[in-house]
Amino acid sequence: MLPLAALVIRAPWSTVVEVALSAGTVDALRLSLLTGLASTALCLVLGVPIAAVLAASDAWPSVVRRLLRAAVTVPLVLPPVVGGIALLLLLGRRGILGGPLLAATGFALPYTTPAVVVAQTFVSMPFLVLAVEGALRGLDGRYEQAAATLGASPWRSFTRVTLPMVAPGIAAGTVLCFTRALGEFGATITFAGSFPGVTQTLPIAAYLGLQRDPDSAIVLALILLAVAVTVLVSLRDRWTGALR
Length: 244
Known about the structure:
Blueprint: H1 2-9, H2 16-20, H3 23-55, H4 62-77, H5 80-91, H6 98-105, H7 113-137, H8 142-149, H9 154-165, H10 167-182, H11 186-191, H12 202-212, H13 214-243
Helix pairs in contact: 3-7, 3-10, 4-7, 7-10, 8-9, 10-13, 12-13
């Protein structure tokens, strides 16, 4: 808590409102929220099935299971800048997939708003996958067996029995995923750059502000802190309230 306390204590409170309402800050916050929501939605679409596969992989050969788990969780330990470089090599203008995409459609992904979403998805999806996998592994399999004996198909059993029972894990993973995407910096600036209104998210704006105007950087950091704490507290209270 000490670094966060220092941030609050040293904040230039006399200029907080002015900096927070400036056009650059509003654009960066709006972009961060929109791309964070988009990347979280993408993580849900891709991450929940991956978590289900990992949770059901105990019968697989151990080497295959370990390789799959390593592939899913490596962004947690990989420096974000390295992730951005890897994304460039894959999806850049001369990348393995980006080159053919550019030749076929004329569209280059790097340094665009969708590139921000891709970078955020890459670094934040493991949080969702691990949370959902943990919830699936703790699920009592007898409920799914009971649904099967009553004639439910595997898909119906998964959507009507399994998913509602692991909803708290999905909610927790979603919150972690969103807050991680909101604070993503390294992979984003490497793969998407820093173009105001296009790819300059709030963390990037704070970093650039630290070089020009440290007081404005502190205010931007406070906004990020406030948004992250608000999301964590409000969503958790709402979810636990629904459970009660």
